[in-house]
Amino acid sequence: MEYDTLIRRFGSFGTYQKRLYCVLFLPIIFNSFSSPVTNFLVGEQLHRCKIPGLHNDTYSIQNENHQLLINWTIPRKSSGNYEECTLISNDSLKPCTEWVYDISVFTSTINSQFNLVCDQKLMRSHAVMAYFIGTVVSTVLFVPLGDIVGRRYMVCISTTLTFIANIAMPFSTSVYMFSACRFFDGFCGNCLYMASFIIAMEFVGPKKRLHAGTCILLVYCLGEFILLLLGYFLRDWKWLQLVLAVPMAVPLLYWWPKVLPESPRWLISRRRYKEALEILRYAAKTNHIELREDLSCINAGEDEGILKILKGFLKSRKLVLRSFIMFSNWFVISFIYYGLTLNMGKLAGNLYINFAVAVLVEALGYLLCFLMNKTGRKPMHLVVMFGSGFGCLLSILPAFFLDSSYTWLLVAFAMVGKFGISAAFGEIYIYTGELFPTVVRSFILGFCGIGARLGATISPYIYYFADGKFGEALPLIIFGGSTIMVALLSIQLPETRGRKLLENVNDADHEGDLEIDGCKKTKISTDTDDDSETSQL
Known about the structure:
Elements: H1 3-9, H2 15-34, H3 38-41, E1 47-49, H4 64-73, E2 86-89, E3 92-95, E4 99-101, H5 110-114, H6 122-141, H7 151-168, H8 175-202, H9 209-233, H10 237-245, H11 264-269, H12 273-286, H13 306-315, H14 317-344, H15 351-368, H16 372-375, H17 377-394, H18 397-401, H19 407-435, H20 441-458, H21 468-489
Antiparallel strand pairs: 1-4, 2-3
Helix pairs in contact: 2-8, 2-9, 6-8, 6-20, 7-8, 8-9, 9-15, 9-19, 14-19, 14-20, 14-21, 15-19, 17-19, 17-21
């Protein structure tokens, strides 16, 4: 008997799974704050040198005398704005050491707190990059541990460390302490999301994986909207971060096994049948179904150590090639997603409008993923990848062949690219999880996550080439071309819709026998199979 068959017998997505998802929604929401919150914590504030000896100096003009003092003390640029880093002293220019900041958008940010301006401006980039460095290190060292110690422990450890990093952040006494907190936030938050996603997917039947996975992504968008709302009303970075951090203490209850159980699929793969049976029987009871099966009859394959499993994985040419293709997909999707997100900021000058538009388009892209049970995983993946690629390429037409009155068309094509790549971001987690066996699923998601983090890290640099008319189109050419190339590679991937998850490395050589919708199938009939699926027993 297969695990997916057992899942259908006590309910593919019953009361127990729904409760579990409500539990997992909290860490997903908290994780959604981590990356975009830098827009508010390290937000740009206009500034100029503080007038020496004037204790009540403010960036805004107070009166005519204040205006005269500024004119006498602060030189102007050719654009008419005041110099930000120099002041006039004894008829000569010298660098200033104190600044005043515009508080019309933010009352306080990391920049104004630690004066990350002028010669210290580079420290902003270091503070922001600390988070992404943390995600890269976590992806390499921490995420694969989910296949060794279990999904639940990774969620509990990550939740605890994430709370500590976030609650300490508002009390940072230097930019170095802030950067360290951001590093650990990225390090733990990345693992938290991956482990939560895997638990969620391994607790449901094949036909419900799509809805379950997509709901998690929509909850992620919900978290981003909550962040936007809090960021709008809390303009001081310390208060915003503190309000975001305090609720993160709630998931500490996940250390209690009754709140967050281990994945039975993982326990069975490690031959820990007694623990798996206890969890499954409780789940069945919650779903008002009696479970009588002896889990020792479930096909769990040989009991192998992780090193032997990885050795067998590397010997499988099919899985190695599939890993390369998915690594390329994750790299390009993240590369294009963050590249287009940065470009979307040019649509309007208001940070909050830009943020809302970006999240709305992202949510619409995720909603498209609900069609994957109708279209299949592979067709949906190819459509959104090719669509995003051609959308990016078509956006160069107004730049070359139309006048400036058609810039709205360029924006429209760019939005098509953004929509498609957001949908790809949504379905790639589900598709990747279904393509690889349980025993290496965390390892593969971690490996692909490295590609995603590398893509996100280098995406801003592509805009350094934006010089002149051709330069403005070059980033879009690179985005579109790379997306189409990876989409062509993805044609070799198999379809996974409705198929039982692979359990062991050897299962990849017999995927044809696991197809539910293919010709190699045996119809099953159970009273609790609410999906009316067929499966190979």
